[in-house]
């Protein structure tokens, strides 16, 4: 069952720029009535809201400065959102951060911050909004942006991979719970792309036969999967292939295939990230 965006309320985290902004533009072009953008960058958020409001005067575009590293803030802002207009019909859990480093070079704050923003924050936000989405009985969609890093291990991505493995397991479990309890008017899509050229993974190299996706291509594939209510969209084709091979090959055999064949294990050797150090936001 495809989903119609016309008149919908949409909430997007990491919405001030990058892929978050592209999702917002797509929702507005397709007739969304109210698009709420959450981001920690207040200046960028204000600029994006102003530009989108000018380009789409018939819709309401709202920005909320939220630190997804603060669970209490997420809960409070979610309750404000519900009180202001009710449940969203579309929730896009897009915001994310990454620190590419050997595990023992991570600071404790890197571990806590990555797990909080990439895994805990989407869970908390969805937990606050989902009961209202269920109760409304209106067709609704949740799009959770995971990563190919959550499907196979990779050196220099241990904490990021852990956060995305958590996202994938949680997201697909919620999908099953909704389906098995007769609440499948709310459909969950988990998006697992390989590297996307947003700046978040500057310096990373795509594995063999795996092009680095443009933000436009990535968001288009995620968006179409979400509208169609697909459970999972992994892209490009080498991502589900790698996951399947990892599942059937012995670990040492897979290591050789991944390392010498697909060259997966070298993709983060020259990683810099958006700022060259520290966590880089997707938004």
Automatic annotation (TrEMBL):
| GO MF term set | oxidoreductase activity, acting on the CH-OH group of donors, NAD or NADP as acceptor
- Name one matching Pfam family: adh_short
**Coiled coil spans:** none
UniProt key word Oxidoreductase:
yes
PROSITE patterns assigned: ADH_SHORT
Is Nucleotide-binding a UniProt keyword of this protein? no
Protein's recorded name: Short-subunit dehydrogenase
Organism of provenance: Flavimobilis soli
